[in-house]
Automatic annotation (TrEMBL):
<dbReference type="Pfam" id="PF13508">
    <property type="entry name" value="Acetyltransf_7"/>
</dbReference>
<dbReference type="InterPro" id="IPR000182">
    <property type="entry name" value="GNAT_dom"/>
</dbReference>
<dbReference type="InterPro" id="IPR016181">
    <property type="entry name" value="Acyl_CoA_acyltransferase"/>
</dbReference>
<dbReference type="GO" id="GO:0016747">
    <property type="term" value="F:acyltransferase activity, transferring groups other than amino-acyl groups"/>
</dbReference>
<protein>
    <submittedName>
        <fullName>Acetyltransferase (GNAT) domain-containing protein</fullName>
    </submittedName>
</protein>
Length: 156
């Protein structure tokens, strides 16, 4: 069976969608980390670290990438930085994350030059996405479960 072409449209999510997407963020992170850590530890991580991070950093908006079939990816941001960029598992490795990241950067006119990122070791393509989009890794720390890094980008 031939795979249908993805018509990609990126836009800012409305307020009602934002709350649904934050719920989906928990589910996606729990699922990805659950494969590596186990469900209980992933649940604790999601509902402590992620919840506090979203509340403490004052989420400004969310952005979505969608097709005729629905949601493909989304990004959660503050006024100045991208906190999370999630591509749904069935749509990974198709360039969707890269397109959404470019759209978000262009829309936000990012003023910060540094971004902290936490990347699950099972999803190394997350790191490649930022590096291929012009970000440079400046610090790096690795644990058994994840890679924490700081990325830097020059804005002209």
């Amino acid at each position: 069976m031939k795979e249908p072409a993805l018509l990609l449209h990126c836009r800012r999510a409305d307020l009602e969608e934002r709350y649904k997407l934050l719920g989906l963020l928990y589910i996606c992170i729990e699922e990805d980390y659950g494969k590596f850590w186990g469900k209980e530890r992933a649940y604790k991580f999601t509902h402590s670290t992620i919840l506090h991070e979203c509340m403490d950093r004052n989420i400004a908006t969310t952005y979505v990438a969608e097709s005729y079939n629905g949601l493909l990816a989304f990004a959660v941001t503050t006024a100045a930085e991208i906190l999370y960029l999630v591509v749904l598992p069935q749509f990974r490795d198709k360039g969707i994350g890269r397109r959404l990241l470019s759209f978000v950067e262009g829309t936000m006119l990012l003023t910060t030059h540094r971004l902290e990122a936490r990347i699950n070791k099972l999803n190394r393509s997350g790191l490649e996405l930022f590096l291929s989009n012009g970000w440079k890794m400046v610090t790096y720390k690795e644990t058994d479960e994840e890679v924490t890094l700081a990325l830097e980008r020059r804005h002209f």
